[in-house]
Amino acid sequence: MGNSLQDQLLRAGLANKKQGVKARKALNNKQKLKASGKAVDDEAAQRVKAAAEEKAEKDRQLNREKQQQLEARAIQAQIIQLIELNRLEERGDVEFSYTAESVIRTIMVTPRQQKGLVNGQLALVRAGSQEHSERVELVSAKVVEKIAERDSTAIVLHNQRDEEEPIDDEYADYQVPDDLMW
Known about the structure:
Blueprint: H1 5-12, H2 17-36, H3 38-86, E1 94-100, E2 103-109, H4 111-119, E3 122-126, E4 136-140, H5 141-150, E5 155-157
Antiparallel strand pairs: 1-2, 3-4, 3-5
């Protein structure tokens, strides 16, 4: 006496013998294909595994890109904070010209600030997050060094003097007499 699902369905009248035979044949064919077609299953498994690895690599790449973007934003925020805390607010009536993106621009400074810019004690930095930002601020050389460690593209102008470069004085070998009158 069979207690299989097929026998129970036949007794209940929910299926007939034809459907039972058809189901048995389909099950036998499936088992034969499974036994003889191991390579087919392995190939499908390899494709699934390759797709999973490809997806995992793509996810890792997206995570790296997101991490780089977050780091860039953090650096930009640090630069803006350095500039905001250390900028020189005082503006004068002397025009100081500089080049930025091959365009000559001017900023109003005091005579003392102008000397500091020329000597490299002060510098101009870009205070925005974009390279083409119009907002330029005046900061000290120490702050510029900190900004350069993070992103050197934010520096618009920083004159650096070579201390080792001797001043070429043609008359250095000649002594000036003390009693010289002009």
